[in-house]
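The protein record minuted underneath.
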Amino acid sequence: MGTDFMKNEKKKKKLAMTTLVVRGLLAGSSDNADDPYNRVILKCAEEGKITNKGREGGVVKSLQIDQLDFNSSPDDMKRSISMQIDQYVKQYGDSPVTIILKGLGLLSVQKEDPAAVYPLRNKVALVTGAAGAIGAGICRGLLEKGAHVAATDVDQEKLDDLTNELKGIGGDRIIGIQMDVTDKDSIRLGFEKIIFTWGGVDVVVVNAGIAMVAPLVDMDIEAFRRLEKVNIEGTLLTLAEAGRCLTMQGTGGDIVLVSSKNVFAPGAHFGAYSATKAASHQLARIASLELAQFGIRVNMVSPDAVFADGKRKSGLWAEVGPSRMKARGLDEKGLEEYYRNRNLLKARITSVHVANAVLFFVTRQTPTTGATIPVDGGVPEAAPR
């Protein structure tokens, strides 16, 4: 989209809000009661730029919507747009390929491959903290199930490495967006970029988090506040923006928080991490209560000790690993063995395992919200209760 348009913040907000509404209204009905909508992918462009994708048989199949009152309630705006889309379908017997939002922009519906049977086809997912080991594994898992994935992280260099790697799997279904979860405007702009790229969002994985090691008696309060800023405020701000966007879109959705084994079984010297992750976990539980009425499910996965995703090392373990190794007189390999041997199944927990737990929720295998899946090989004291 043009530079002048992108500088107009008021216009961008209106276009983002309207695009979410249109995408929700264009979603068809599915035969799955647990996931009742067939989503579409929308591409945003500046008004007047109708591409060949907006043409069928040489005829532009476009609907112009030009009576939007942004001072009205969201429900009234939805009704106005819905009536205009319904009138178009009644007249032409099909949904529009192109929608012109007078004074705002243009939306084109992307054709899907009718042979594609991926469970997350046409679903758009956002992953925070994507450039870390767990985040990378989750992004890969989502792509393999057919989702469009926006990988977000504050570290642009690591984010670029990840997206370049994953293009081999997802092609143009993967984008990277630099986003700081402690900054409300950064989060809003990140969501807007996704909306302008694919039309909306359906899955949000709240994964960004940081750690530190210190006994309570020696803890630096500023270091604690740094964890509080990322792990608690970052979760709150992401949940809030996700809730606003998913509600406006009106087709339900899934939010999954990557929690921690330490929420249920905290460790000595892990006070800051355990306390802030417990707070983020509680925020997600509350979100499950508040958002269920809109068909939005909020669940948690609780992993233990994921050290790497292939050659990509875990940022958390880069931070806390040295002190853990020193305390136990172990090297890096020995520390991994220690954590593997402490669980009942003697399992090495990987980013793939965490991704599989996320996928269980977002592919809607069961009608579940407000639940936690432990991904720890069986640590008895960490069982949710």
The chain has two domains: 3-31+42-109, 124-382. Residues 26 and 311 are 41 Å apart (CA to CA). The longest helix spans residues 221-249. Confidence is low (pLDDT under 50) at residues 50-59.
